[in-house]
Specification:
The complex is a heterotrimer of chains A (about 475), B (about 400) and C (about 400). Chain A is an all-alpha fold and about 475 residues long. Chain A contains 15 helices and no strands. The radius of gyration of chain A is 23 Å and the shape is globular. The two termini of chain A are about 35 Å apart. Chain C folds into 2 domains: about 200 residues, no CATH class; about 120 residues, Cytochrome c-like domain (Cytochrome Bc1 Complex, Chain D, domain 2, Orthogonal Bundle). The longest helix of chain C is centred in the N-terminal third of the chain and has 27 residues. Chain C starts with a helix and ends with a helix. The chains are: A mainly alpha (about 475), B mainly alpha (about 400), C alpha+beta (about 400). Chains in contact: A-B, A-C, B-C.
Chain lengths: ~475, ~400, ~400
């Protein structure tokens, strides 16, 4: 745990003549290294960590047990049935993939935009991306039914002389999500090498030194290494930016290329991307607020960081609201009866509570962030962030579930209800996510030390000139 | 980073204002060209259909420059960006010039008030009269929206909103030139968020009204964003081009550096990709869905010679500038960047031409003298307005509290 | 300071001198010192810092890396691979029309192409960034230097390699000292044996030994025949609650699941009182004429052609050449057990009695399966009728042609 309990400067003020410091307290390179490495190096792990880990790994175990039950029994244990063949499983898939997007946005897009405040939170958010994509990937994986034939999705020469159908958006999804996972992992790891080297150089345990040494590939902080890794990160950032847009666009194609009313609309790709970033940032804030307090990182992840993230939540909330509005307007403007009905059904049909929860949580509640008090008070922002996550889950159900219950043909309308397996797996996926996350906090540097150091040095030299 | 010094690096001759009298020749040339275009339009004996369409293309073109610039200004404030302060005044000039565009838009409103249904098909009362052989149920449904008065009111509303927003930033920025009051910056930052919201909604509906309703039965939810992407590309291009031209006349020499061009180049590249993303999303979903009422729009643009222009857009508005702007060197050399700015402006005009013209009755592309005369005429009048707006005013926000940061800015 | 410098060379000097490393207090002193080392003409040296130091690249004279170009090539390769793969698999090797899209549909191929561009580029960037900076390199003399461990925390260093042409220990020390080094140390080539902890060594060794076992088990299970029923991990519809032939059920007295026909009963439409019609035989001999109940006319023949196309043509081909799609694909794949179907107009077939042809269709011959259960007798006779026409058509002469056609041919 941190040895530093310096008073927290209020760095959220905005004086155009001076940039407020991004790092609070009287930090030096050394104290910064101590604070971050200290979390990993603490000799006695607090009991609270074990409690949290036990709870989440139990939930994760339940997740895998239910997957086993599903595989051995059949997909019928879910509530999916004609005409709602895509239900909670796909809702949860889109939900988790969306959550992942914040990490890439923070580490890639904000890097391109030179937003230095990203340095304190990017490691954390990228880790979240990877874990969220793992949770997401499980769902379509088990949804295919005969999981042991999942490899049929890959284009490989086989004895049936068949090839996958590349004109199917579901196959694009396979490529998009697996590329996303790979690239996020590589990006995360490349940025982490210098920090792993820090842990390698500080640790006393030979096992840790060997493992951190192995994964830090002999990093010596040489200028030639920095030069290439920095260039590489910049290139990866540009690639990841395109990738993050493409992934959720492809996810939206799963729906939008079809002709289902409520699915087939051209704004889907950017609308899904905005929604993904929205939900992802809400998740980062939800986790970040307790984590920074628990791990004593308040000086590195300051209120200003949270403030900035909340502004992005507000901005993306407006984008999502814009998309809702345009969709409703065009549904009317198109004059197509099915489109009009789809939107009336969402708002006033049997699932209306879902719709209005979605609208309230995603479009109305985030406007609290226009007020500085809400953006800068941790307890208040967590309320909004959690509600946004609820709202975004509802949004996916509204799009996927409600559209399917009432399609073109009234004779095949049918209501949908989840089974206990659906609900259990949803809760279980949070267990998997939290398990991975707790392991990350325990064994890997949670803050990108080297990157924060650049900010620190920058601010010091800035201060020296005054 | 250096402490912002008062007028750091700004000598007076470096920021010599533009002479407002430059407006005169531009106005004369513009009026002459437009007059010529009008005569050519009359000679076509098509109820001015071609002339009006071509006029709409070019007036939307100059509107999009203003809107792109307005977006740039508002985003700089919203993100509290320091790097772009030296370019902001140029963008403010461009955005305030929306007043000129509003005047230029009047002929379109006159045509609508006179119910010239050769421009907008929905002005044809026969299309909405049940029992008529031109009756379209899809149009009749939209009768409440397609009203002459409503259209005019909306269009006026858009211009009022944009002008008010542009004025808001412009007047405060000018006031700060005198007082250097940092509170003005805070005020602009505070209102940049809501103004972007207003901007997004008005721009979207302007795109629906002016451009999408040319094919009144067709609809696409992404259309507003598609137009927005084009606006930002052309707005950024005009800012770059203006900066290069001002530097060519010896102004702002030491103020705008390769670092600023580098960043503008990056943004330009980003929004070229964004434009492609919007265009692809729209095309892909309509192509794949294959529903007749949607594909009709692309059908018109893939047949009768329009396919060539569609492909030209794919290459000229996306692939070629993408590879052209990829290199760091190109972005840092102002003349190369200016070349790409001009290129993108030309292709943005072609983009609008491709959006508007296929809704004409005669289906083939008939690019000709009329289009050139109208486009150059409107551009000249726009430049005349710009000279009046910018005339006598400082070319840099000289007392912006973050000017020092912008002057010392380096990419790394 | 000089004191510590001298002492620190001795303590565990365990090998050949690899270089000199000097610590500096701040990034600024590191930069000035780097400039001095560069100007002194050293080539094999490096500066080390806990984070990237802005301005150090320039001070050291590091040129821009070629990484972006490598990545560009990799990206283009990825795109080409993506496009070729989709073209070959979906348009060439396994052409299937799906949802009315062309076999090679560019819009539908864009997402995968894009993803592969990103994947190839990203993996290349990752590998390139590491390999170009000489990583992974787990053994390096600097790691043995305790003081150097602070490089990843808060200290700045310059290391000069002993292999540099200009390296003279004392001169190097003097140079670094003059630049304000806080401490100066020698470092030595690493001793490799100590580096891998035994635990990891053994873990890896055991894993390497165990790794092939699953693969071998799979290979063994695939290749070695077994009389035991296969292990069913997943039900996979292997076991279903339904009655099947050859199975037992306690429900019936005879324990057979398959129920025999009740003696004396005839299934609907299966009354075979006409043996000529149902079996094509009279006694033990094939009939040579069509049964009375089969009308030999054009209508029957057309029915026969239709059935032939459905049931026979897939193997025998439309004209009975034995080149149907199934056969063609089997020969293309060089299936070992495939017996090519006979030519239906071969003499051996042509002069068979109609009853025998009927019998072959009903009961199959050699590799040809029986079609009796799929094609009702009347249709089988219709096929036989059509078959005769087909056979005749292959052995026609000029004399068979009508008068006028013969004249036409003669005229040519």
């Amino acid at each position: 745990m941190s040895t530093l309990t310096l008073p927290l400067d209020d760095n959220t003020t905005n004086d155009p003549k001076h940039r407020a410091p991004l790092i609070a307290g009287d930090q030096s390179l050394e104290t910064l290294t101590d604070v971050v490495s200290g979390i990993v190096e603490q000799p006695v792990v607090p009991r609270s960590w074990y409690v949290a880990f036990a709870v989440s790994s139990a939930l994760a175990a339940m997740f895998f047990a239910l997957i086993g039950y599903l595989i051995f029994t059949g997909v019928g244990v879910w509530g999916n049935n004609s005409p709602v063949f895509w239900a909670w499983d796909i809702v949860n898939f889109v939900f988790w993939v969306g959550i992942g997007h914040a990490g890439t946005l923070i580490s890639a897009i904000l890097l391109l935009f030179r937003q230095k405040w990203r340095t304190s939170i990017n490691r954390f958010a990228e880790a979240m991306t990877i874990f969220a994509v793992i949770c997401a990937g499980v769902y379509p994986g088990v949804h295919i039914g005969r999981v042991w034939f999942a490899y049929w999705l890959a284009p490989y020469p086989n004895h049936m002389t068949l090839w996958p159908n590349f004109r199917s958006p579901l196959l694009w999804d396979v490529f998009a999500v697996s590329t996303y996972f790979t690239v996020s992992l590589v990006f995360w790891y490349l940025g982490m090498i210098p920090d792993l080297a820090t842990l390698r150089d500080r640790t006393q345990s030979p096992l840790r030194r060997a493992l951190y040494g192995l994964f830090s590939v002999g990093w010596r902080g040489s200028a030639r290494q920095w030069h290439r890794v920095e260039r590489g990160s910049l290139i990866l950032a540009s690639l990841a930016t395109g990738l993050v847009l493409s992934v959720h666009s492809v996810v939206s194609f799963d729906f939008a290329v079809s002709q289902v009313p409520g699915w087939h609309t051209t704004i889907f790709p950017p609308y899904f991307v905005a929604g993904a970033i929205f939900s992802g940032f809400a998740m980062v804030v939800t986790l970040m607020v307790p984590a920074r307090a628990y791990f004593g990182l308040k000086d590195l992840i300051t209120v200003r960081h949270l403030d900035n993230m909340n502004k992005i939540i507000l901005a993306t909330s407006c984008m999502v609201g814009y998309a809702y509005g345009v969709e409703v307007f065009i549904a009317w403007y198109s004059g197509v009866h099915y489109e009009r009905f789809a939107f009336l059904n969402r708002a006033f049909g049997p699932y209306a509570p879902y719709y209005w929860t979605m609208v309230t949580c995603n479009v109305i509640v985030p406007h609290l962030f226009w007020f500085r008090k809400w953006r800068t008070t941790p307890a208040l922002m967590v309320i909004v962030a959690v509600l946004v996550n609820v709202g975004m889950w509802m949004e996916r159900f509204v799009i996927i579930g409600i559209s399917l219950t009432r399609g073109h043909l009234p004779s095949s309308w049918r209501m949908y209800a989840p089974t206990w397996v659906d609900i259990g797996m949803f809760i279980g996926s949070f267990g998997l996510f939290m398990t991975l996350f707790l392991l990350f906090c325990r064994f890997l540097p949670m803050v990108a030390m080297a990157e924060v150091k650049t900010v620190l040095v920058h601010e010091e030299s800035h201060a020296a000139q005054h | 980073m250096q402490k912002p010094k008062e007028n750091a690096g700004l000598s007076d001759e470096a920021t010599t204002a533009i002479n407002p009298r430059a407006a005169g020749p531009f106005a004369l040339a513009g009026a002459a060209l437009l007059g010529g275009g009008f005569v050519l339009g009359l000679l076509q004996r098509d109820h001015l259909a071609y002339f009006l369409h071509s006029y709409l293309v070019s007036v939307c073109f100059v509107a999009s420059l203003c809107l792109g610039a307005l977006f740039f200004v508002a985003v700089l404030h919203a993100t509290r960006a320091g790097w772009g302060i030296v370019l902001r005044r140029i963008a403010e000039f461009l955005s305030v010039n929306i007043a000129t565009v509003a005047v230029l838009f009047l002929p379109v409103l006159v045509a609508v008030i006179m119910r010239n249904h050769w421009l907008y098909e929905w002005l044809d009362a026969e299309r909405m009269r049940e029992g008529s052989k031109h009756y379209s149920e899809l149009l009749a449904i939209k009768r409440p929206y397609f009203q002459v008065f409503f259209y005019v009111a909306r269009s006026v509303g858009y211009f009022v909103i944009w002008w008010a927003l542009a004025r808001f930033f412009f007047t405060r920025s000018l006031k700060q030139d005198e007082s250097g009051d940092p509170n003005l910056t805070l005020q602009m930052e505070r209102w940049s968020g809501p103004s972007l919201l207003l901007f997004a909604v008005s721009l979207t509906f302007a795109a629906f009204d002016w451009l999408m309703s040319l094919t009144p039965e067709w609809y696409s939810t992404i259309f507003g964003l598609y137009f927005f992407a084009g606006c930002v590309v052309s707005g950024l291009s005009s800012i770059v081009l203006s900066a290069v031209m001002l530097q060519a006349t010896g102004r702002l020499k030491s103020v705008i550096t390769p670092e600023h061009y580098h960043d503008m180049g990056k943004l330009l590249l980003g929004f070229v990709i964004f434009w492609g993303y919007m265009g692809f999303s729209q095309y892909m979903l309509i192509w794949y869905g294959n529903i007749p009422e949607e594909t009709v729009w692309y059908q018109a643009r893939q047949t009768n010679g329009w396919a060539l222009i569609s492909l030209a857009l794919l290459f000229g508005h996306l692939l070629i500038p993408f590879f052209g702007l990829l290199s760091r060197e190109v972005k840092r050399r102002r003349h190369l960047l200016a070349f790409w700015a001009v290129w993108l402006l030309v292709f943005h005009w072609i983009d609008l031409y491709w959006v508007v013209m296929p809704s004409l009755e005669q289906k083939r592309p008939q690019f000709g003298l009329l289009d050139v005369a109208v486009a150059l005429g409107i551009l000249s009048l726009y430049l005349a307005g710009l000279a009046l707006v910018a005339g006598g005013k400082s070319l840099v926000a000289r007392k912006d509290p973050r000017l020092g940061e912008s002057l010392a800015f380096e990419n790394y | 300071m000089t004191e510590t410098t001298k002492n620190s060379t001795t303590p565990e000097s365990p090998g050949t001198l690899a270089g000199i490393v000097a610590r500096f207090e701040t990034p600024e002193t590191l930069i000035t010192a780097s400039r001095a080392v560069r100007d002194a003409g050293f080539r094999r040296w490096d500066a080390h810092s806990p984070m990237p130091v802005h301005g150090l690249d320039e001070a050291m004279g590091i040129r821009l890396t070629i990484l972006p170009f490598i990545v560009l090539v990799a990206g283009l390769t990825g795109g080409a691979v993506g496009l070729l793969m989709q073209w070959y698999t979906n348009a060439v090797d396994y052409p299937q029309i799906i949802s009315g899209k062309p076999l090679f549909s560019l819009p539908a191929n864009i997402p995968v192409v894009f993803e592969l561009v990103v994947l190839f580029s990203a993996l290349t960037t990752f590998a390139g960034a590491l390999l170009l900076s000489g990583l992974p390199q787990w053994f390096h003399g600097l790691f043995a230097n305790r003081a150097f461990h602070r490089v990843t925390s808060d200290a700045f260093f310059i290391s000069i390699d002993a292999r540099d042409a200009k390296f003279h220990e004392n001169e190097v020390r003097r140079l670094l000292e003059s630049q304000g080094a806080v401490s100066i140390d020698s470092y030595y080539d690493p001793i490799k044996e100590r580096q891998i902890p035994t635990l990891i060594y053994w873990a890896v060794a055991i894993l390497v030994v165990l790794a092939p076992i699953p693969v071998l088990l799979i290979a063994w299970a695939r290749e070695v025949p077994s009389s035991r029923p296969r292990l069913t991990l997943f039900m996979d519809m292997d076991v279903q609650p339904k009655y099947k032939a050859q199975n037992e059920s306690p429900l019936f007295v005879d324990n057979r699941e398959e129920r025999p026909q009740v003696p004396g009963s005839v299934p609907r439409g299966r009354l075979d009182n006409d043996t000529k019609f149902v079996y094509g035989k009279e006694g033990d001999n094939w009939v040579r004429t069509f049964p009375e109940s089969v009308p030999v006319n054009l209508e029957t023949m057309q029915r026969g052609r239709e059935r032939f196309t459905i049931y026979c043509a897939p193997c025998h081909g439309q004209s009975g050449d034995g080149d149907g799609l199934v056969s063609a694909r089997a020969s293309q794949r060089m299936e070992a057990n495939w017996v090519p179907p006979v030519q239906l107009y071969a003499t051996a077939v042509r002069f068979q009695p109609v009853g025998q042809l009927f019998g072959t269709i009903s009961n199959g011959v050699r590799k040809m399966p029986a079609y009796g259960s799929q094609i009702p007798p009347a249709d089988r006779w219709a096929i036989v009728l059509y078959l005769q026409a087909l056979q005749r058509s292959q052995s026609g002469t000029v004399d068979d042609l009508p008068e006028e056609v013969r004249k036409k041919i003669a005229a040519h």
